[in-house]
Amino acid sequence: MRIKHLIRQFRAWQRNPVQYSDQGLQEHHCANCGHTYTGNFCPVCGQEAGDIRITWRLIGQSFLKAWGIDSHSLPNTLMQLMLRPGYLISDYLYGHRRASYPPVNMLFVVTVVYLIIAQLFDISRTEHFSYSDVPEKYAIAVDIMNWFIDNPAWGLLTFTLMFCIPTWFFFRFAPRHTQHTLAEGVFIQIYMATISIICTFISNIFTNVIGLFIILVAAYYYVTYRQLFGYRFWGTLWRMLLAIAVAFWLIVLAMVIMVIVWRSEKIEMLPSLFRPIIIITALLAAGYFISRRTAVNRRTAKDNKG
Fold it and tell me: What is the pLDDT of residue 101?
């Protein structure tokens, strides 16, 4: 019974982790500058309204702030990103930005910290691709892949950004956060890139667990998309798998384009573009129309029920 209560409390915290006090129209006398005002903060000196007595809660908050841990700090936002990723992203997209660390800044800081730790402790052990693994005309692709191995943060950011288009197509008619824009999709994937870098760090520590990185990233993508868009198990799963397939073929298409640009025989290699373009178009169209049809059926069932 106690466990169920803790689970309910955790789920409630996931949906609403920050509670703000509302002083309403109550009149306050600022103990710092003597100004009389209404609201949560003094408009003259900025001191917060409320009880001026020292409490244990104030002591705890002071110690946390001394280490840079408060409601909108980087450690607090990272904790929320790992425990309630979809809800955190939803809060940011809907304008609750004061309570979280800026996502682009967070990605930059996490990336720098990861690279420093990776260099100091040599935790990045991924082997490079060999030129013998591919035909000679695709040798430039090996150079590109090896560059991404040497620069994992850029590689993860590039891969996650490939999810912007399929996410926009497949989750466009979701129960929550409907009709999200591509610009919002970029911020969604910036958060996911941060999660991916953290998962990379964890998988490099626990090297004895085979496929840990793939397991962690797949699990976080599923949890994030389910919390953010509100689909159930299968609705989230098949859309996420389609998004992965499209992201993979977008990377293949980008690699083929780079090879064509790099090589002199551009005309002869143009047919190589057709396969990824056809596959990407077919997957996007199928996912889009199925999602749209499902949304129509959901609205119809809701209207009939009402």
Answer: 85
